[in-house]
Amino acid sequence: MTAPVLSVQGLSVETRDGVRLVDDLSFDLAPGEILGLVGESGSGKTVACRALMRLLPEPALRIAGGRVALLGQDLVPLPEARMRDVRGGQIGMIFQNPTAHLDPVMRIGDQIAEAVRLHENTTRSDARARAVEALRQVGIPDPEARAGSYAHEFSGGMRQRAMIAVALACNPKVLIADEPTTALDVTVQAQILRLLMDLRDRQGVSIILITHDLGVVAQTCDSIAVLYAGRLCERGPKRDVLGAPSHHYTAGLIRCQPTSAGGEGLLDTIPGQPPSMGAMPGGCRFHPRCAAATVACKGDQPDQAARGPGHVAACHNPLTSARRKVGA
Amino acid sequence: MKKPPLLVVDDLSVAFTQRSGAPFGFGRRSLAAVNHVTLELRAGEALGIVGESGSGKSTLGRAILGLERASGGAVTFDGARISDGARADMDRLRRETAMVFQDPYGALNPRMTAAQAIAEVLIVHRKLPAADIPARVDELLTLVGLRPELGARRPAQLSGGQCQRVGVARALAVDPRLIIADECVAALDVSIQGQIINLFMELRARMDLALIFIAHDLAIVRRLCDRVAVMYLGRIVEEGPTEEVFRAPRHPYTAALISAIPEIDPDTALDPHLLAGDPPSPMRLPEGCPFHPRCPQAQPVCQSGPPPAEHRSPGRRWSCILDPENTTKNPTEVLTHATQ
Question: Which of A54, A70, A261, B26 is a plausible cystine mate for B22, CB 3.0–4.6 Å?
């Protein structure tokens, strides 16, 4: 087995009042792996990824413990100046709303060239050529001409492609994609997902894909990590987690998703609401909504236990269902 | 005998004008957001309207309820023509129809409690004597699955799903016969989405409610709606019973939309034959069939002339020159061959 590109061990994020938004998160990312980070709003998936990049709005939020090792180097104690080289250099990031993250008064090509020149010692014309090449890689037609365009001249899907070009210009090892297709139409979403998979195949970049859509995960990711209320419920290869989920929350999420294959009658739901930040339940944080909750679930926090090769789940009463066809 | 339709939308168009900045209105351009749309809806029926952003689906929903001025055509609700109708007809429309919006927080007044927001509807429409209003508010809250004591809370103290339930309760306060829901679950988490969809299904069965469900999520439409209309650049390009349309789409655009849904089954790979390009701007409608620049089956005839005429078969219609008798039963297959 190859060494992971990124290894997160026991990462925790706290608010100023000591509320743990992310609690003891651990996962490894192999070279060329696409990891789907799944959870509902408020589950801590975005906060966790901002912590990886050391982009938390301090002092309101801070890393309370843990290690984030990129190619063996721990990023948590790194001084800000060094971190700036890592961000955009070795780790690229793309966001849900490309309009808000592209400079409206700077030509797209210049934005990419700026990123290249910040991180590498190149000439202006080399950076410019790299920008055009990056735009070509993300499938923007006529990249020489489009490099001179502004963000508002691009459509939503093109803007997302441009943002991916900015993130990839310095050949990062890891790309963090925070809900990159949520704001896009389903036809354009399919194009962007295809692009991310192509870039992984061509350049070997590892991707953390944050999403709430299990369909997106099933189509693009190699492995899945499911977060609930700041804690990791379950992590493992895609087929194991979707085909034979061990955690009741994962199983519930899969059942909730209406499939395009149809079906009749009422949809399955998970009763209740996710807990609010200040009022986390004790024990397993999912127990108030879990049909299989026992006394142990209320009192003790379950530990991560192995469920198969590379598959762990934190549940006192894990599901042992035989593998079933998903979406049936 | 079939019931007469509750809602008839006949050749409805909505145009927006865009100012060019030149004086005296020179260079003003007009944009056909809804372009000659015809629809019918019966009591108790659920119609899904799907399409990409910019297809005009929200504008159509707003125009049906008179929230957008129609530039042509007519809307008839329960026999009364309302698009250019009398004030009295408009008042009746407002009392018997309701709309649920996408943003559950944005649709509520942040300074009103949930109960006040619902009571406001009852007061405005003079549905009940003032003394009976609190009891009815509690009843409505219970109907949408909220405990009555939550009525004392303001939107900021409620979750997104709870706010959306208050929005539905407000819609139900008028005892509507028609509800138009515009992307009403798009902003909600998956586990909460199902709760709202189920609520609509139960209410529809219990109250013979007609529902227009505007969405980009085709999987939800398939579960909830009896019929589905697919919009592209302001036109309905295909309409029919949901199951039939999903199983055997007749328009290549419908086929492409369906094949782009990411399936939760990891063994069904993402369709490699993706629809290329972005939805074009409705400011510059292409000549001929508006879909031809992205259509994998486009023929030379698609590129000019008027948009294709409507084909009809019982319960279904679609606008495409391709004759389904001459092609395979399933245009998805045709699509696959054409792009290979």
Answer: B26
pTM: 0.84
Which of A155, A218, A266 is facing B265, going by the closest CB pair? A218
Residues 68-107 of B with CB under 8 A from A: none
Does residue B333 have a pLDDT over 60?
Answer: no
Report how far residue A280's alpha carbon sits from residue A286's, in angstroms, rounded to the nearest whole number. Answer: 10
**Cβ neighbours of residue A88 closer than 8 Å, sequence gap 6 or more:** A115, A118, A119, A167, A170, A172
Burial tier of B67 (Cβ tally within 10 Å: 0-12, 13-18, 19+): exposed
How many contacts (CB atoms, under 8 Å) link A and B? 141
Shortest alpha-carbon distance between residue A78 and chain B (Å): 36
User: Do B264 and A253 make contact, defined as CB atoms within 8 angstroms?
Assistant: no
Q: What is the mean pLDDT of chain B?
A: 84
**What ipTM is given for this predicted complex?**
0.77
pLDDT at B272 over 70: no
Q: For A253, name the nearest residue in chain B, comparing CA atoms only.
A: B191
CB distance B9 to B39 below 8 Å? yes
The pLDDT tens digits for B170-191 are: 998 988 999 999 988 877 778 7
The pLDDT value given to residue B325: 52
CB A85 within 8 A of CB A70: no
Task: State the Cα–Cα distance between residues B282 and B299, nearest whole angstrom.
Answer: 22
Quote the tokens at residue A319: 């599901």
**How many angstroms separate the CA of residue B278 from the nearest CA in chain A?**
7
Cβ A273–B161 below 8 Å, yes or no?
Answer: yes
Contact call for A326 and B160, based on CB within 8 A: no
